[in-house]
Design a protein that fits this description.
alpha/beta; TIM Barrel; 11 helices; single chain; 3-stranded mixed sheet
Length: 443
């Protein structure tokens, strides 16, 4: 392997060299050449054998049971391959019965996602906060809590039946508007009340996730106003979640929040909602997008190495419009005079993938988002984030079938042909986002 964590030599060859390393008292491992004593090398070789057996057992059980990931390349070392994820949004409104989580229409969606190469989904049950200064989170969202939790339980079962693992993300909706990252009850008493309500909200869904058999859980989404402080609160909450939920844990930090989160070391993944701007002016070229994406890699690589946790893009995506990667956080419902551009969505996503997928510290991503009903048009405008039936969907299918840096090397005696390099394959991507007919102006 080369410095920086990119794949350079097959893992099987490194493993075979363990035997020789025993005689020399040293071993090459990860992206650094580390000289080790003979006894420590023997221990590492034994650990590798035990880890391989453990992975086979876990793979056979179909569960992503709790494993404390304690190195930047921990997910790669487990040998499970990249997380090919899609966020599936709920359609919980009583106005649309039978079209949400755990219904025949969501089963049809999962069939399509599995065919695309998806191996994880995230699902996002919501709680309600009346306003940014409110302290009480209500469990019902568009439908009663009991109904929503039953839908989540059925959705997890549907996913598992198709070999797809599930990350559950309890989300917050602010009824009167505003971004959840700006929650501020305004006083110590208000913060205390809010934290108590938030703990009840997350722990309720943690227990539900455990009962449903979900594989991973996010303990929060873009809680920027409190993720940089209140360390004792977060330590208690995450400890309480660990006590009731056996799976992997992450937190969904906004892209400009990641460096300030105080509790990463209590979790398994550094989770990022990766709506990164890739350029600062309209009409940017693909080369500029790629440069902007690659500029993000060193900072996340360094953080991953420092915290000894792999990085996971818990949300990533771009809208279907011109200059999608200039201000990617703009919400589709608030836009006017939109120039729809499927090619632009595809090339923005491609630039980010090209920058990150070769990296060993990068576990994978969840694209924001599809909806439980493939035929639904009620949730967002055509220029929104969903890649369904757009050029970006073809891009995702190709990406999910490519080899990533985090993927295990195939055994050479089973794959005698040369192993392709990690994504991207030269010559494929440009045809997705060039050519006539990809733009439409909406007044």
């Amino acid at each position: 392997m080369q410095a920086g964590g990119k794949v350079a030599s097959p893992r099987w060859w490194s493993e075979l060299r363990c035997r020789g390393a025993l005689r020399r008292g040293e071993v090459s491992y990860t992206s650094r050449v580390v000289v080790r004593l003979q006894a420590r090398t023997r221990s590492r070789c034994r650990f590798g054998i035990a880890l391989a057996i453990g992975v086979l057992v876990a793979a056979g059980s179909g569960s992503a049971s709790a494993q404390t990931l304690r190195s930047d390349e921990a997910w790669a070392e487990l040998g499970r391959g990249g997380i090919h994820g899609i966020t599936v949004g709920p359609i919980e409104s009583s106005q649309f019965p039978g079209r949400g989580y755990g219904t025949p229409v969501s089963a049809r969606l999962l069939d399509q996602l599995a065919a695309m190469g998806v191996n994880w989904i995230s699902i996002t049950p919501f709680g309600r906060l009346w306003a940014l200064d409110d302290t009480r989170i209500l469990m019902d969202f568009e439908a009663p809590y009991d109904s929503n939790r039953e839908g989540v339980r059925e959705m997890v079962a549907q996913a598992h039946a198709r070999g797809i693992r599930v990350l559950l993300i309890p989300h917050l909706w602010v009824e009167t508007g505003g971004w959840r990252g700006r929650v501020d009850p305004g006083s110590p008493e208000g913060w205390s009340a809010y934290q108590h309500s938030y703990s009840d909200f997350v722990l309720a869904w943690a227990r539900d996730a455990a009962e449903a058999g979900a594989d991973a859980l996010s303990v929060g989404v873009e809680m920027k106003s409190l993720s940089y402080r209140f360390g004792a609160f977060w330590e208690q909450l995450i400890g309480d979640v660990r006590a009731v939920f056996p799976g992997l844990l992450t937190y969904s930090a906004n892209w400009d929040e990641v460096d300030d989160v105080v509790f990463w070391e209590q979790l398994d993944f550094i989770g990022v909602n990766a709506f990164y701007p890739l350029a600062n002016h309209p009409g940017a070229s693909y080369a500029e997008y790629l440069e902007g994406a690659r500029a993000r890699v060193p900072e996340l690589r360094e953080l991953s190495h420092e915290l000894k946790r792999p990085v996971l893009f818990v949300e990533v995506g771009y809208t279907t419009r011109r200059d999608a990667a200039v201000e990617p956080w703009l919400w589709p419902d608030d836009m006017q005079h939109v120039v729809i551009d499927e090619g632009e969505q595809a090339r923005a996503m491609s630039a980010l993938f090209e920058a990150f997928l070769p990296e060993r510290f990068f576990a994978g991503f969840f694209v924001w988002r599809y909806y439980a009903d493939l035929d639904d048009v009620s949730q967002e405008a055509i220029w929104g984030f969903s890649p369904h039936a757009k050029r970006a969907e073809r891009l995702l299918t190709e990406v999910f079938h490519a080899r990533w840096g985090v993927d295990p090397e195939p055994f050479p005696w089973l794959h005698p042909a040369p192993v392709p390099p990690p994504y991207p394959y030269a010559g494929f991507l440009p045809e997705l986002f060039r050519g006539p007919g990809s733009s439409l102006t909406i007044p």
